[in-house]
Amino acid sequence: MIIEAGHFALILALMVAVFQAAVPMVGAYKNDSVWMNFAVPSAIIQVVLVSVSFGALTYSYVVSDFSVLNVVSNSHSDKPMLYKVSGVWGNHEGSMLLWVYILAIYGAGVAMFGRNLPPTLKARVISMQALVSLGFYLFILITSNPFERIFPPPADGRGLNPLLQDPGLAFHPPFLYLGYVGFSIAFSFAIAALIEGRVDAAWARWVRPWTLAAWAFLTVGIGLGSWWAYYELGWGGWWFWDPVENASFMPWLIGTALLHSSIVVEKRNTLKAWTIFLAIVAFSFSLLGTFIVRSGVLTSVHSFAADPERGVFILVLLLVVVGGSFTLFALRGPELKAGGLFQPVSREGSLLLNNLLMTVAAAVVLLGTLYPLFIDAISGEKISVGPPFFNASFVPLMIPVIIVMAIGPLLAWKRGNLTEALRRLVFAGAVTVATFVAVMALSDDGSLLAAFGIALAAWLIIGTLSEIVTRSKMFRVPMMVSLRRLAGLPRSQWGMSIAHAGLGLAIIGMVGSTVWKQEKITVMNPGDSVQVAGYDYTFIGARQFPGPNYTATRGKFTVAKDGKFVTELYPEDRVYPVRSMPTTEAAIYTMASADLYVALGNKEESGSGYVVRIYHNPLVVWIWIGLLSLVAGSVVSLSDRRHRVGAPEKSSKVAAAPQAAE
Amino acid sequence: MKRKHKRLTFVIVAMALLGIAVGLVLMAFEENIVFFNSPTDIVNKQPESGKRLRLGGLVEEGSVVREAGSTVTRFRVTDLVNAVDVNFDGILPDLFREGQGVITEGKYIDGVFQASEVLAKHDEQYMPPEVADALRNSGEWRGDLGPPAK
Hints:
The complex is a heterodimer.
Chain A: H1 2-30, H2 33-36, H3 39-62, H4 69-74, H5 81-86, H6 92-113, H7 119-143, H8 167-170, H9 172-196, H10 201-232, H11 243-268, H12 272-295, H13 308-332, H14 347-379, E1 383-385, H15 387-407, H16 418-424, H17 426-442, H18 448-472, H19 479-488, H20 491-515, E2 518-524, E3 529-532, E4 535-546, E5 551-561, E6 564-569, E7 572-576, E8 581-585, E9 587-590, E10 594-603, E11 610-618, H21 621-638, H22 653-656
Antiparallel strand pairs in A: 2-11, 3-4, 4-5, 5-6, 5-7, 7-8, 9-10, 10-11
Helix pairs in contact in A: 1-3, 1-7, 3-6, 6-7, 6-9, 7-9, 7-13, 9-10, 9-12, 10-11, 10-21, 11-12, 11-14, 12-13, 14-15, 15-18, 17-18, 18-20, 20-21
Chain B: H1 3-32, E1 33-37, H2 39-45, E2 52-59, E3 65-66, E4 72-78, E5 83-89, E6 101-109, E7 112-118, H3 129-137
Parallel strand pairs in B: 1-2, 5-7
Antiparallel strand pairs in B: 2-4, 2-6, 3-4, 4-5, 6-7
């Protein structure tokens, strides 16, 4: 009964979405407030209906209702409760339901917090949200219905893919989707603005916090996925430039650009068409990402069995959204007249330069990701584009981004003084050069690449700190005064600095773990020792170990350096009987300087040895710290009074005189 | 600066960046594209030994030999018409099984494919599209190998 109620609620949500898409849009056109006012209650009814629907599916997972096909295929009564719940979105149908659920939540968010939005804009935004939902409701109900029954119900389910039974991956899809779908708000605002023909600072003040929140969620989602790949797959890497990873990275790149260009719209009332363009592209990339993951058209190490029919449906949806919105953009975009002028050397100029670089970088990733498809379509030849391509094309584009990131915030709006900015970065420059020399001298192999990368990170971190020092007038006025100035800095300023410095930390981790990584794959018998990067790993032995729904072979290693005990490591090789599928649980000992990483492989068929993989991954922890700083920076920035959605405006020159775009 | 000049600067900078990106992409493509081959392709073409390739097909039943005391595994990859010997030094992915689809990357040297990577899958039902196509081309596609890729 409950599952039918869930199914019915979803169909009702589809009906509501039809009206929510049509009525407020017509109302905005006719300027009829009764019709426009339909938007708010319908968005709220919709989120209630999808909650019922999502709740029903979750309930059937929690109680292991094996008369539901979706539960049978993806759950098992033995599974721990966490993975019963995460099993809801650990499969195609359920994850699409989660997608529309998040879409409905965002839509209701605009409806509830959008009291001071201009009524026509609000009606159009909520209507656009419903239009997007409509596509996905149809997709779910036609091709991927999670509420299908099975008769007779089997005694037990087929279990969730063991690789997904992991805390990191349990929360990866919700965060990723909160990010992906969050860009739908910027998209709906962009379309509504194109229809209205005006973009102003008030518009940007609305788009900014939503984009920032979506971006922060996406960062968490990508970070969780990367962290999971790092410790669960047992390859010792955290990023493989795999199509599925790229699918989440492209919206992130465009989202980063959008985040920054919307600042320019808000502060300077310019770059409007560009910002609208980015908002459309960001959401298009979100849809493209969904298409790549859900259709299985590209060979990916992260691929799961896929149904091509679904791929076609999403592709059509993608074409409608992209085609429709860019046609509208082409028709109405030119009417969005540019606002304030600025010199190339200015805050706007630096933001625009980095925007362009981010966009070009996203295009490069897109090309590398889809190139095998083009070649297959043109010549039938099957190729793959691997990490070396991306390292050779994407990474160089990021170098100017990092350099400009330290300079940009020191430039004034409209007309900046480059000499003055560089004068303030003399110290940062000195530290950069010193870092370069130090890394060259200290590392045995004297890797030029590593020295350059770490020096670049130092430039960004010290440059960001220099900006705070400049703003607080530290060392130029009494300490108390500058402390007071520091405390008085706006939260968005702090958010930026935390995020920028965090990126610097992440770069240190990325460079260090890529360049200085050491690995050893060998067969070890109990009692054997090997040395990797100065650490002695001794294999004590392995024994069977029962888990809640798996059996583990747990190895024991002691690690010592120069005869001194460092730690014990317990890598596991688990077998899940329900799917007779093994998974690797690497054991990792994290230090600031490096991760000690051991993965246990197969036992030799004859003999007592195990294949063991040992990695020495320098500085990896800084990647995670850096990513957390990016998120922390976003949170701090979101807590800024000016970003609080619906908060009354403090007097600000731009806000006081919102100019029409025409 | 006039509006027209501003727009011009924007366009020039954007074009320059795109140009640089195209250059980087072309340079990167030159060296970093890896072609996929079925066992039949390898047998027919006998590719030169220095080139990185991908080889995909099914792991031949009964062909997997793990050398004692080392991390080398030998197996054969087949499209059920031709088969190629593969050597791989490392830990095989968790889902590596006889009779299942696999993609390996490496170099073809003196009649043996020296794999440096064996691509892992996350799901036992997943069949890489290239492997499915290779089997279809060899006329050996069977429904029980998993859902067709396209």
